[in-house]
Amino acid sequence: MTETRQDIVHYAARFDPAMPRRSSTLSSHLRALEAESIFIMREVAAEMANPVLLYSIGKDSSVMLHLAMKAFWPAKPPFPLMHIATGWDFRDMIVHRDQLTSALGLRLLVQANDAATAAGSTPFNTDSREWARIMLIDALKAGMDRHGFDAAFGGGRRDEEKSRAKERVFSVRSAGHGWDPRNQRPELWHLYNTRVARGETIRVFPLSNWTEFDIWEYIRLEQIPVVPLYFARHRPMVDRGGTLIMVDDERMQFKPGETATERLVRFRTLGDWPLSGAIESDADTVEQVIAEMLSARTSERQGRLVDSDEAASMEKKKREGYF
Amino acid sequence: MTRQAEAVAIATRAEEAAKGLLRFLTCGSVDDGKSTLIGRLLYDSKLIMEDQLRSLAADSKKHGTVGEEIDLALLVDGLEAERQQGITIDVAYRFFSTARRSFIVADTPGHEQYSRNMATGASTCDLAIILIDARKGVLTQTLRHSYLVHLLGIKHVVVAVNKMDLVGFAEERFDEIVADYRAATSQLAFRHVLPIPLSARFGDNVTMPSNRMPWYRGAMLLEHLEAVNVAVDAGDAAFALPVQWVNRPHQDFRGFAGTVVSGRIAAGDPIVVAKSGRATRVSRIVTADGDRDAATTGQAVTLVLDEEIDIARGDVLVEPRARPEVADQFAAHLFWMHEEPLLPGRRYVLKLGTQLIPATITSIRHKIDVNTQKQQPGRTLELNEIAFCNLHTTQPIVFTPYTENRDLGGFILIDRTTNQTVGAGMVEFGLRRASNIHHQHVDIDKARRAAQKGQKPCLVWFTGLSGAGKSTIANILERKLVAQGAHTYLLDGDNVRHGLNKDLGFTDADRVENIRRVGEVAKLMVDAGLIVLASFISPFQDERRMVRDLFGEGEFIEVFVDTPLAVAETRDTKGLYKKARAGQIKHFTGIDSPYEPPEQAEVTVATGELSAEAAADQILAYLTSHL
After folding, report:
1. Is A230 in contact with A59 (CB distance < 8 Å)?
2. Of A246, A226, A75, A232, which Cα lies nearest the Cα of A155?
3. CATH code reported for the domain at B240-318
4. What CATH class is the domain B3-227?
5. Which residues from chain B sit within 8 angstroms of residue A163, using beta carbons?
6. Number of H helices, E strands in chain B
7. What tens digit of pLDDT does each residue of B48-69 get?
8. Is B538 a catalytic residue?
9. CATH class as words, domain A6-218+314-319
10. Digit-coded pLDDT (tens) for B423-456
């Protein structure tokens, strides 16, 4: 029996129109970012026939969902959430996802590549690039096609990675979901061109202009619940060539001589547990995470094994249809 | 974490909370060192983290252009393709912050062929850094960048005279360049221009004062960026909110969601729907954080109004004392952004604020040479060209001049077939108040005139290749109609070109104008109660659709005279194909100019199989059953 997350219960209650409103304490910089993101989400809701919010349960998704709740309040966001599940997400993430969407009364779709799982693919026996392709990219394409979505919100930020720095807020994908970086539409002012041909779709990035620091500051000031894995706890860890992997369930494949040891760690990014590297840290509150980040000397994507292959890997993945 | 570290962090955050945001762009040519300058700002603001530095060191070996040193430009040149070419082809957005301000930097390409990317970057910025290579001084491209920055409405400019290290940090050289620049840009509407001598590569006057240029006593670049006040003096600007989305979760709530683009609104204030003129008051300003007493520019809110009046997405809510213009014709500067040239008369989709309306460019007043700003005549507009134009929308739209408000004066044009964003425009002024162009009321109308003739007027539009048999079939059809007592008129392509359209040639632009005029003439004739037959190659779908849009439901009957090119060319009744093949006629449809067949013609006659007589009978049968 999973414990009920009280922070999620209290959070959901805030969006009940009958409850008293809380006052916002954002900086003018964050207020500007928030207003821009809300504008973008409303444009999509107004102009697209069938949008979806790609919900990956991480901190960026948490902020994106929070912005969606605000943009359409007192109505609910006029689109469902879709989670691309691999079957290897941290258990804490699934708990967070299910409790939050149920408390907020939102429609959640879960899409997975069941065929690949049935064929025996695991993150232990599959190359990390190939794993991302079949479990994230293919499953995302299948989900888009299955439900006929014409627009998908993603939590990508331009500060994350060099190829994202050049991506538009509204990014058109061909019928095969590919991205052509040489043929992006000019995007002037806040005039977003949402027209697409049949079969084409648009990825929309309402957090384009946010930085990692903005995200955490916003989470702190707006008191948005995030998955507890972001905060330091003693967890069963395996040290694999300097990367700390958490043993989240019995499917862990130990190498000869490996054992799990309890270490005080937290995660800067979340994904599949066998592919997510933790950092040693004692930061167990949002305040401490921010303080630690301000003195951090390593940027956040380093913990993601999926991305460490080569500098331009994100650009290649996007050409293939990843967020 | 130590208590000390935490205290530092919290102090930093307190500063963070108070500070604002500045969006600026950098422009300059390939070798002026834009990317190096941004790399320098990021590097010196200590935001370059260790692993990024590691991958940078690896990248520098692969692509670097400065030998053994770390190439700062590689920090910002993102896409693989451009890293290999060593140039920046698309706008890249970078982020850094200091204790005093957060910055979003649009790094834009300098090449003339990428001017559209520069305009994209400039559209959301409040300040521009224009780089000049101290060795080269003010160049044509410096003036082009300055003009574009001016056109996009940026009021604050930093003239960064870079590579001072390569001219011996000479004050005279700097003064000379600044004097040249001021003389060349005196006509541009900048509010504040600050020239700074610097070296992005070594950091002089970027974030640190330069002891190699003691003669310069002005602000360093970063110091200026932190302090400059770019706020528009909009203290008394009138309230405006374009409605994005109607929020109606249940019967008891109806709100209008949108972002305030100008001025301020308070609960209880009167508002007017700009287009319809309906007036009411704001009863609540709703946000998820609770109702507000007031909302100001830039805030995303939901307004609840006192009375239920008809409001939809695309409407603009404004305060009664200062209503924006409402018109269906206006003059604007237009920047063309697509490889397919602009065709006056062709219909595009115009997006301004939340309004989405079909529009045509009715005339190009003059083109503007982006390098010299000289005016020149022109009939079309190619990629990266700018013109001052008149535009016409199918319905009145709400706008203000761009110089007054970017959100109510900036628009994009979208191609209806490819959905590409093909143009960006800045409204200068309305040409006629829509309220003044009501059609003159006449007592005898189309229905009356049609009744008198005992027929239902319509336009039968023949389209197809030259030599397909359009005129022959139209001729036979008209004979048959007249024999049945109908009142008709036949408009033929060749005949019209002898008179009404004798000033037009066969370029794509002229073909569009040819069809536009014929459409308008046919409309008058249908209005007069006639059955009009029009026989024109009319190769483009867009233009046929433009004519169709002039007519009511069922009044436009498109007849596709479907003849294979080979058949038409074999017939070659006028000997034109032969000449076209010999290169004596340019822009000949089917040879070196495309024909786009109709997708949903009312009637298709296959003249490869049917005689002209039988084809006319087929059309007559359609008309008899539909009229």
Report:
1. yes
2. A226
3. 2.40.30.10
4. alpha beta
5. 78-80
6. 17, 27
7. 444 444 454 455 455 544 544 5
8. yes
9. alpha beta
10. 999 999 888 654 434 345 567 788 888 888 888 8
